[in-house]
Every structure is written in structure tokens, then in C-alpha cells.
Amino acid sequence: MSTKKIKVICVDDSALIRDLLTEIINAQPDMEVVAVAPHPLVARDLIKQHNPDVITLDVEMPRMDGLDFLERLMRLRPMPVLMVSSLTQSGSEITLKALELGALDFVAKPGLGIRSGMMEYAAEIAEKLRAAARSRPRQARHKNTPPRKELSAPMVSSEKLIIIGASTGGTEAIRAVLEPLPANAPAILITQHMPGGFTRSFAERLNRLCRVTVKEATDGERVLPGHAYIAPGDQHLKLARSGANYVARLDSGPPVNRHRPSVDVLFRSAAQQAGKNAIGVILTGMGKDGAQGLLEMRQAGAATLAQNEASCVVFGMPREAMAAGAAQEVLALDDIPGRMLSLVAASGHAQRV
Q1: pTM for this one?
Q2: Domain containing 292: what range?
Q3: Domain total in the chain
Q4: Which of 61, 137, 274, 304 has its CA 20 to 30 A from that of 53?
Q5: Residue 289 appears among annotated catalytic residues
Q6: Residue 1 placed within a domain
């Protein structure tokens, strides 16, 4: 009995990239390229004709702005879109804007910037297309949407920490968690699956939107309240101690769960170094990275939260964490920021009593 294949349309101005993506996708038993387009004007008619499950969309196209096309598409016919991005500063900024507009995820353009072999690259594309086909298309946040109401932070010691892990759909989920936090929130360490070259733009974008200071983590720097530290792409982020202070440590060791940075690596270090002074949060993403680390955090006395299925773009990582017994509470994304702060306040009160 044959199963229905995932239908994909590839939109890219490069014939070479269109051919390569077609070859990779058609080699998979469960998906096929039903059409290709050199630019969005052609893609528009092909979408109506073929009703695809997923679109791959070039980030930078000379004939028409891909972002304008994406914005219209997500408004008129929301569907899973996987961006194909160049590993450049402008490419990363456009990609982050595309994720804000509703794109599900992105892959790097094949070429000299691809570290691993083509088989691994093909496996990554196939995995992300499968996740996209199962995902919930989401409307972009409207440009006139007022900023989230600022929450108030409890007065707690610098011992309190919030530790966050995310993957597919995580860039906007992390934004939703950080935006309402006050400038004096506890220190936050974040691992988001993202390649090198993208995390700095991601941190800078969040820093413009949030009251807390958001930055890409650097090795050995002190971890301070009112700051959020993003794991650099291609390096693990760990929590460590230097005397009485927490510090960030970066590690170029092998990938864990096929990821570097890995959520498990960050969560495990928080379990070992912070114990009950930390709060662990696992957000949307495919795969199982973070489930074991979150369990270790819970076993070390930390409060642990997972994003619920209804608010996840991809309910993979939270589901695995829940199955492992790692999550004490399962919450909608919008409820997580306030719950984090109330848990910090409760643990601080318990310590003072």
C-alpha cells in the first residue's frame, strides 16, 4: 500500500540549486518535487495548481523580494515554508525576518559553507521538510501588534537562573518568552539550534526588542541578572562557576544528539552547577535534544517547564521531555514567561524563610 508523498515546490533563481534540491528531495521515498520556480511570480501560479505541502524559498532573489512574497503567502494562504539561506550577514538577517514573517525553518545553501558532506546535508533537508509537513502553519505577528505587557521581576539573588532550549520554531518562541521580561529579570542562558553566523544576528535582533540585554555568549564571561546569553552557532554553551560567580563556557566538542550547540549540554551543566537555583524550559523543536538534560535538571531540584502541543510549531522536543518525565508543568507559550518569574519568586521566598 503506497503512502501519500509530501509535495514540495522549490523556488530559487539558481537553476543549479533548483536541480540539486530536486535531486535530494526526489531521492527520498516519502517526498517529491512537484514543480520548481525561478522566482515568486511563477511560484504563485504553481502553488494554486499543485497545492504543495511545503515550499522551499530562496532568501535572496533578484527578480522579486522573497520577503514580500512570503508575507503575502502567510497572510492569504498560510503554509509551511523552508527558507534556503546563504551563510552571510545579510542572509542571516533576511532569514530571521522570514522566520518572523511565518517561515517555519531554514537550511543553508549548499556550497563551500556546508561543513559536512552532501549526504548529511541531504538528510538535514529531508528531516526539516518532514517536520514542516507535520507542522502547524502560523500567522506572522502583525506589525501593529502592541508589545507584550511588561512583567515584574521578584527581588532575588544572582544565584537564580533561567535555562532555555529550543529548535524548529524556536526563534519566535524565544522572542515571545523574552519580550515581556523586565530589565531586572534573572540571568538567562539559551541554546537555540542554529548554525554559526546566524546567532549573532539573532541576539542583536532580540536585544532591540527586549528589555533584558540579549547577547551572543562569550567564553568565560560572568553571567549577570538582566542579561540573556545565546549559545553561538557551532559551539556548545555550558554554565560553570568561577568562585562565587556563574560564568559562561563555550565548547567546540563533538555534536550531541547531532547538534552543536546542544540543549542537553546546556541543561546538564545547569543541573550540575545550579541545581534547585535554576528553572529549565524546553520549547518547540523537532527531535529529542534536551529531554535527558531537562530530566537531570529536575532530578537536581530545578523547576522544569515544557511548551504545550497546541502552541508549538513542532511538538518534538517538548513531547520527548514529557515522555521522559522531565517536565513538571506543561504550559502554553504565552503563559511561560509569567510562570518562570513566579517560580523564581517562590524559590527565593523559600530560601529566605
Answers
A1: 0.90
A2: 161-352
A3: 2
A4: 61
A5: yes
A6: no
